What does this fold into?
Amino acid sequence: MATSDAAPAIRAQALKKQFGAVVAVDGLDLSVRRGEVYGFLGPNGSGKSTTIRMLCGLLLPSGGEIDVLGYRIPKEAEALKRRIGYMTQRFALYEDLTVAENLSFLAAVHELSRAVAKARIDEALERYWLGNLRNQLAGAMSGGEKQRLALAGTLLHRPDLLFLDEPTSAVDPQSRREFWDSLFELADGGTTLLVSTHYMDEAERCTRLAILDHGRIVADGSPQDLIAALPGRTLLVNGPRPREAQRVLVDAEGVIALAQIGASLRVLGSAHADLEATLAAKLASARVDAEVRATAPNLEDVFVAATRKQLRPRPPA
Amino acid sequence: MNLRRLGSIVLKELRQLRRDRLTSAMIVGIPSMQLVLFGYAINMDVRHLDGAVLDEAATARSRELIQQIVATEVIDVDYVASSAQEVDALLRAGRISAALVVPPDFESRMENRERPALQIIVDGSDQVIQQAARQLASFPVYDAIGWTQRTAPIEVVNFYNPERRAPVNTVPGLIGVILTMTMVIFTALALVRERERGNLEMLIATPVSPWELTIGKVLPFVAIGLVQVTIVLLLGELLFNVPIRGSLLDLYLAALAFIVATLSLGILISTLAKSQFQAMQMGFFSLLPQILLSGFMFPYAGMPVAAQWLAEILPLTHFLRLVRGIMLRGAGLAELWPPLTALGVFIVVALTLAVARVHKRLD
It folds into this structure.
């Protein structure tokens, strides 16, 4: 077991997964350092869950190499399972068991002694505000409570590496923020986290992230680096009739993507310096009253630009 | 295999079972209901069968005997036939279920007592009616006339079903049928349900082993199966006076072997099925040949060779041999080693196949 601190927690090379004719993961290279909060950002069907499942040893890769915490996967998956936590996309604990019953079941599954189990369960109930829900059936709890229970259960055996597959998809915004605070607490304690999401604000909080599209990583780096490296420019079109402006600009040269944000129109365009002027002229000639100005790019622009590039060369099906 | 982990799975199953009211009710409800339904349908005291009388002797004594038999109210005389052909026609048309036939040489038969004095012809296509006929067959003809009995005075001619079966034969078999039904259905759902609810994906990402998972799911139902055996035995004794001639311990050991065999089949189905619905279908599909071919419904000896081979694979066939041997013939387990060994082989094969199919992977 070669697990020096310098070695990455997760390393995957040319990872591939095919389900019949469908290629879910297509030559993915990944390196996650220890102690990172690494994000997987991507639309549904981009291969996030499939990749996580292969990294945990739950799916056999069709090709490529995986090394997680020094274990060769899938060969040494059983040994790895003692050191990771995996929080599935769907609530996977037993809805017909109480909070305490679920936790003591998981503690026993991970071979914790009764004394250790009791201490850790009490601590988890306190830390994740589940103390007064101890005897509540899991099925009768809210989305946020279930999420906290699932996290508490995943952490009982103190895993070194935590996989979280869209952990906040069924949770309200307040619970989401609290949940992410808990994740950073874990990262501070030295746990490595790999989190998949399709929320931009969550992706922005990761120390590093990969944008997945059609089973490939189309961009990766820290959120700041990704934004700084955005090849195009972002413009804001302000006017009384944003929908008309959108109609005029949708096929204009240099425009990669358009989205209406409130009363204004957000334009992701090519890197031309005179893009503002071109678009303003186009709007004027169509008699649409609007003002065009540059704005600071954000992660969503990066996401749109990265996933667009992939879409363009594909022949229409 | 880690005992703490195994224990935690058993405990978890029991807790879930306790909260599943429908299943809990089924554990007690199915055996009680089935025993009462089957038991009474088969063992019912039949009265007022539609019947006919053909008195070819027409003597004072024959008329007196017919009077006395009719007085038992088992047969009503709806028709007075004048020929055997008429009786035959009435029976075939389903207008009567039984006929009393007094032969022309009734008087001399009563004197010689070498051949039965009269016949009751019954519609053997109906088991219940056979039962009634058997009641009549024990009617003390000679006592009624004032003589003591030497040979059977009444001969039952079973028209459509030559094989007669006693109700005591049915109740022991019913233990097997009830266990097959409940055990297979309960466990067939066990793993599929976890997969459908998403629990399995969480579970296989932990160090739990396929053996722990399989055995942990089977064990609680072993106890439940033994509870069901007890219910059937108690009700069988209370309601139908079914005897247990062999040792009770042997009976429970045989039941234990059969329960584990049936649970192994159920868990195997659970690893094959893709959904709970499919598991139910496969469960019922496995039930039908067991009920039909095991010898519960039809005698094993009468089946074609191919069906007998198939029957040899089914656990219920072997359990019926065990349970009938122990309960009715008073045999011991040592004498009954062949069916017991067959159950053992079935358990090893089914359980190994099931565990081999419990992957700790999703694909």
Chain A has a mean pLDDT of 89. The CA atoms of residues 19 and 292 of chain A lie 46 Å apart. The first helix of chain A runs from residue 48 to 56.
